[in-house]
């Protein structure tokens, strides 16, 4: 088994999104625009809101990719122009395939808006291959109780498998682009090698504590870009949490204009025109 080495470490930057919430973003960033097949990773929070202060992302469009929302703390209510509505609580995942286009709203729950509370979670953008960019929008909503989890025999490392497989358990989510998405929690002293398909590009994002990845220390807010290989190795000297992301690279042109991600400038102009003329629909309330 060939362990993947770390070829680059990227420290995330902070920026404001939506109606004013701050995210920690390891990519895209200057010099690292995409992590094929992934387009963006945002860590939302952790932040504590006082009553009346919680903000989210009001009505906004998407086309040409998928958004994966993973809530660690807090509650989110969403609705869209296709008539979908729902609520995500701590531990839940929403996998939205925007496809040919949709108007989406993601806001703190009414309870959180009135009472306040802590918000922490992630949103990952996964690119769609050219053949699927204009597919019909769809959702997969996975409650916390159905997300597969596993623990190493020594009990020092635990994984939640959102996509792909790890420690003998496989995710329940169907992905258009073959990827892995793991949430690992390490206790001090944990050592584990995680097999990943050789054909995948692979990344590790540490969001709590510090952990050695192939012998190189990563601290909270840092992303490791991994070399080719069959596995990623972890060693934890303290408690830590990290995401493991890997996927088959599409190696297709990426043309992005905000929430539209297509393969050509012409397709972007078409997306803008469709949005301006209301062809992505509106959210009925």
What would your notes on this structure say?
This protein starts with 5 loop residues before the first strand and ends in a 9-residue tail after the last helix. It is mainly beta and 285 residues long. The protein has helices at residues 110-115, 265-276, and strands spanning 6-11, 13-17, 21-27, 38-49, 57-62, 65-73, 76-80, 85-88, 93-97, 102-108, 117-127, 138-142, 149-151, 157-163, 165-166, 169-170, 179-186, 191-195, 201-213, 216-219, 222-226, 231-235, 240-247, 255-257, 260-262. A hairpin with a 3-residue loop joins strand 2 and strand 3. The radius of gyration is 19 Å and the shape is globular. It has a single domain (6-247), classed as Jelly Rolls (Sandwich). It contains two helices and 25 strands. Strands 1, 13, 14, 17, 18, 19, 20, 21, 22 and 23 form a ten-stranded antiparallel beta sheet that branches. The protein has a seven-stranded antiparallel beta sheet with strand order 2-3-4-11-6-9-12.
